[in-house]
Amino acid sequence: MKTNSLIMVGIAVGMLGMLPVHGEPSASASKACAAGIEQLPDRAGKTLQVCRRAAEQGDAKAQYKLGLMYATGQGVAKDAAEAVKWFGKAAKQGHADAQYILGMMYNNGQGVAEDVAEAVEWFGKAADQGHANAQYNLVMMYAAGRGVAWSKDEIAKWLGKAAEQGLADARYAIGLIPWLVDEKNLKACIAGIPRLPKNAEATVESCQRAAEQGNAAAQYSLATVYADGTGIAQDDTEAMKWYRKAAQQGLPMAQLNLGIRYAYGFGVTNDDAEAVKWFRKAAEQGLAEAQYHLGRLYANGKGVAQDAAEAAKWYEKAAQQGLADAQYSLGVMFATGQGVAENDLEAMKWLIKAADQGHEFAQTALTLLRMKLEAK
Asked: Is the pLDDT of residue 44 over 90?
């Protein structure tokens, strides 16, 4: 898993049109802004005009959308400084998404001088409103001692909040907490990874030093850098070496990654028995992704005797943690009576949970299940 969750502003365009209204603008101007953005890049000039009008009237939603237009170049020439201006206006009105992106821009020095203290402040404001990505980025700042004093208590607090909301990166990273220490090389490693490929040589050197000192979090981080090849040459051998070292210390994310590599032959010869071994170690520590993959191996009889009931057991553990793939698989097992007693209501429950997370196969299976029930 890549740890660079300090998401760049460029992806924020996907959030256009999905945010709550703040401020007290002209309702007609606000609606015209929202309608125009949905049609971009068509009618770009008119959209810019109506959004600016609503933004100048104090509509935080329009201010945020105008900021996105400038940040992403949607319907207007890209202008990071102008984006910061409008995100700032919306953020000061309490718009959580604007606060979050403003934090990223201060953290990355986009359209404004880099200021990690300001980044922490805006991440914190959005995090206090329940913004999961802001909560996770606040974790990264505390873990790196960037703009704020290092604090394991704050790391655990905000990571837990983000994980409770179902943020995959947060749920996945909880296992790192026991290995986090207030040590300069580890902090430099954690601070540098989200900013790769910038300062790649220094970041890798910091990760390497902390990893060689035996820190499992650093070993895992170094493995991900080699696996992803971000800022350095991709190297599966080095990735496997450091994943294994971290996994042998009991780090569940490293165990999961070893399992995935053995199961699918990523950078190593496929070995289902080894995959089962490492998935089980991580699954028994409660890592939902590992529980799901272990369930799949039992369902398909790979690396272990086929056992639908055992598959259902592990799917349910992962499904209870909110993993959509597991919810879908468990729903199918209840619908077909594989490994569990056939139960259409249970099938419906789990398929709905997965479908609500956007799982396309679950949405299709739910439609088919409803047709089956209507035909009875």
From this structure: no
